[in-house]
Amino acid sequence: MNSIEPNKLTPQEKIWRTDFGENYNIRNMYSNNELDSEYKKAMGISRTEMMQRFVSDFDRNIKILEVGCNIGIMMVNLQEMGFKNLYGIEIQPKAIEHALERTKGLNITEASAYEIPFKDDEFELVFTTHVLIHLDPEKISTALKEIYRCSGKYIFGNEYYADNLTEIKNYNGQNNIAWKRNFSELYSDLFPDLSLIKEERYPYLSNNNVDTAFLFEK
Questions:
Q1: 6-217 placed in CATH 3.50.50.60
Q2: Where are the domains of the chain?
Q3: CA-based angle 5:10:13, to the nearest 5?
Q4: Alpha-carbon distance values, 76 to 14, 66, 73, 151 (Å)
Q5: How far is CA 215 from CA 45, 136, 142, 172, 188, in A?
Q6: Among residues 27, 8, 21, 122, which one has the least CA distance to residue 68?
Q7: Residues 21, 92: contact at Cβ < 8 Å?
Q8: How confident is the model at residue 215 (pLDDT cuts 50, 70, 90)?
Q9: In angstroms, what CA-CA distances link 106 with 34, 45, 78?
Q10: HEC-encoded secondary structure of the chain
Q11: 143-201 pLDDT, tens per residue?
């Protein structure tokens, strides 16, 4: 596990490395079946069903990177679907500890989305799940450029959606830590060569929130 220089951390990254982040970890200690149930309850579609709509035809031996993998539950979801070469980066040391205790066969490195420690085009697929929402809108383009750089073919995202940039106030008691927007549009604006293969939106069943899932090809 690598270490990150504290003076390079953004304010949001510093918050995630406190008890705020560990409390999030504990709240989200789901098994794959529990994760599917939580998605189904929230949006009427399981996580597995969502991913199958986007990656069901992909070779199970492709090299995949999750940016902001937390305790590894999204990587386990792909593992259960048969994918084998799974890598993740995570800003929280405690989340990595949980991931290593709870999972097998995952390769997880302590690193920031703003400085991904892998080569250009190293992965066939790079993805995020509810991670871009936590990146400072003034700095997010740096992280997206890193995601783009490391992807040799596909970029997938599952994030909160809004037509316009909107701060999510009082996110688990914190401000200045979560924003929703049209993330696929942001990718397209930054990287005109990306082709949007598919995008779906999933309204929440119990409130006015909406998730988006999208897949780009380079």
A1: no
A2: 6-217
A3: 85
A4: 26, 11, 5, 20
A5: 17, 22, 19, 29, 11
A6: 21
A7: yes
A8: very high
A9: 20, 26, 11
A10: CCCCCHHHCCHHHHHHCCHHHHHHHHHCCCCHHHHHHHHHHHHCCCHHHHHHHHHCCCCCCCEEEEECCCCCHHHHHHHHCCCCEEEEEECCHHHHHHHHHHCCCCEEEECECCECCCCCCCEEEEEEECCHHHCCCCCHHHHHHHHHHHEEEEEEEEEEECCCCEECCCECCECCCCEEECHHHHHHHHCCCCEEEEEEEEECCCCCCEEEEEEEEC
A11: 999 999 999 999 999 999 999 999 999 999 999 999 999 999 999 999 999 999 999 99
Own/partner long-range contacts of 13-16 (Cβ < 8 Å, ≥24 apart)? 13/91, 13/112, 15/174, 15/177, 16/91, 16/92, 16/134
The pair of structure tokens assigned to 116 is 């991904």
Task: Please give the structure tokens belonging to residue 67.
Answer: 């940016």
Nearest to 114 by CA among 91, 88, 87, 86: 91
Q: Which residue has the tokens 């949980």?
A: 98
